[in-house]
Specification:
Radius of gyration: 16 Å
Largest sheet: 2 strands, parallel
Helix content: 40-55%
Number of helices: 6
CATH architecture: 2-Layer Sandwich
Order of helices and strands: HEHHEHHH
Strand order of the largest sheet: 1-2
CATH topology: Nucleotidyltransferase, domain 5
Structural class: mainly alpha
Distance between the termini: 18 Å
Strand content: 5-15%
Number of domains: 1
């Protein structure tokens, strides 16, 4: 709803363990107590037992695309495109530099980049506003 990036993990592979770290970061940053649905494609890391167990343990309902149709996961693909095309435009010399660039890009995306679909508000603004409404009733 807010388009806020809640969790991420930079790694050399897409192993289930690395993706679980991103999920745990998102869960830790969560403010709302409302039920969650986690939508993803059918990547092996998202189908893995370890990933699904973390979802269940945290009361998150999994949702997956019907097949390998990128249009069914359009929001995630859009966010990835924005990060790659607007923020990650420099080649980094090493992983440490890339990690700093990604962190800065995500902070900028969440806090400073307004979205037309959010009535020119930032993801942080919408997320905080909605979280306050959800927590106070």
């Amino acid at each position: 709803y807010s388009r806020k990036i809640m969790g991420y993990k930079l790694s050399d592979d897409m192993s289930s363990e690395n993706v679980v770290q991103a999920l745990k970061m998102a869960i830790q940053n969560r403010k709302s107590t409302l039920p969650l649905i986690h939508h993803s494609d059918r990547g092996l890391q998202y189908c893995s037992k370890i990933y699904q167990e973390v979802l269940v343990k945290n009361g998150i309902t999994p949702s997956m695309t019907d097949g390998y149709d990128c249009y069914q996961n359009a929001l995630a693909e859009r966010i990835n495109g924005i990060l790659k095309n607007e923020f990650l435009i420099y080649k980094c010399k090493d992983g440490q530099t890339l990690g700093k660039l990604i962190k800065t890009a995500i902070e900028t995306y969440n806090a400073k980049r307004p979205h037309l679909s959010l009535m020119m508000k930032t993801p942080n603004f919408i997320h905080e506003k909605t979280s306050q409404v959800n927590l106070t009733g």
